[in-house]
Amino acid sequence: MMNRFDRLTAILIHLQSKKLVLAQEIADRFDVSLRTVYRDVRSLEQAGVPVIGEKGLGYSIMEGYRLPPVMFTEEEVIAFLMAEKMLEQHADLQNSERFKGAMFKVKAVLRNAQKKVLEDLEENIVTHKVSEHNYLLNDTLPLLIRAIGEKKILHIQYATETGINERDIEPIGILRENGTWNAIAFCNTSKKYHPFRTERMLSVKDTNRPFLQEHISLNEYLANKPKDKGQSFPVVINVHNNMARYLTEQKYNYGFITEKPGKTHTRMEFEAPCIQAFSRWYITFADQADIVTPASLKTLVKDRLKEMLKKVS
């Protein structure tokens, strides 16, 4: 459990991170009662912190007040390092460089012992850039995020299977799914919400024009997103637990729905968009799994294995 002094400091930092913070939000974060939150806020007020608001409505800090430079724990320092390494993989070059600039400012306030820990760890954590860096335009994500916050229309050139088209979009959120970044936006051409894959955006321009209408939130979009009406194939397999842990990313590319871990095997259910593609993927770990349904998948796997044996015999 966090001691009260550390909790008061953390609450003060939390209050400075948002315009308005609800008491319940603080209670949930620190796993304390609302009564404790009210008492802690009173303690901050008595210590001279200009807290605005009252219980039941929410709290904020008077504009212009700032906590003096804070000290980070070793665990927080390591978390910063891990975030930097992750961004090296999943962000464009300019954002990676910006985060590195921010990290220099963080390092400037670290104690010497913490700097030594960070320097030693940096030499022993290496990440390789993924291929999406070759396609993601610099500043695409910052432009999208800024447009979401400021409710401004963006003009994009977008590559599709049939060619390149231009359109105005009103982005409502960013979603990373199956290894790709997607902008969820209202298209002023089709008059519908669509996911736009960022690596297909050939150019992104800020029009500086406000949204033409009010939009639903990203959570509302995801909750009401219609299911793909294309053909799919229900598949159930049992995968040995030692293998199941390695399928965490891949399974989402093959229509993964749910799983139920057992003592030795994990039961996985899929709505496979392509049974042929699923069979090829399944063969890569077939010695560690069993097909429950459908029987047609078993037949397809057997046929593929026979063909493979012919080529190596």
Task: Describe what you observe in this structure.
The chain is of the alpha+beta class. The chain is built from 11 helices and 11 strands. The chain has helices spanning 4-17, 23-30, 34-46, 74-90, 93-108, 112-122, 140-150, 218-224, 241-244, 275-283, 295-312, and strands at 51-54, 58-61, 152-160, 163-177, 180-187, 192-197, 201-210, 233-240, 256-261, 265-272, 289-293. It has a 5-stranded antiparallel sheet with strand order 6-5-4-3-7. It starts with a helix and ends with a helix.
What pattern of helices and strands is seen along the backbone? HHHEEHHHHEEEEEHEHEEHEH
Q: Walk across the major sheet and give the strand order.
A: 6-5-4-3-7
List the uncertain runs: 131-135
> Terminal Cα separation, in Å?
63 Å
The structure class reads alpha+beta
Radius of gyration: 25 Å
Mean pLDDT: 83
Task: Quickly list its features.
11 strands; four-stranded antiparallel beta sheet; 313 residues; alpha+beta; globular; 27% strand
Quick summary:
This protein is of the alpha+beta class and 313 residues long.
What does the secondary structure layout of this molecule look like, with pairings?
Elements: H1 4-17, H2 23-30, H3 34-46, E1 51-54, E2 58-61, H4 74-90, H5 93-108, H6 112-122, H7 140-150, E3 152-160, E4 163-177, E5 180-187, E6 192-197, E7 201-210, H8 218-224, E8 233-240, H9 241-244, E9 256-261, E10 265-272, H10 275-283, E11 289-293, H11 295-312
Antiparallel strand pairs: 1-2, 3-4, 3-7, 4-5, 5-6, 8-10, 8-11, 9-10
Helix pairs in contact: 1-3, 2-3, 4-5, 4-6, 10-11
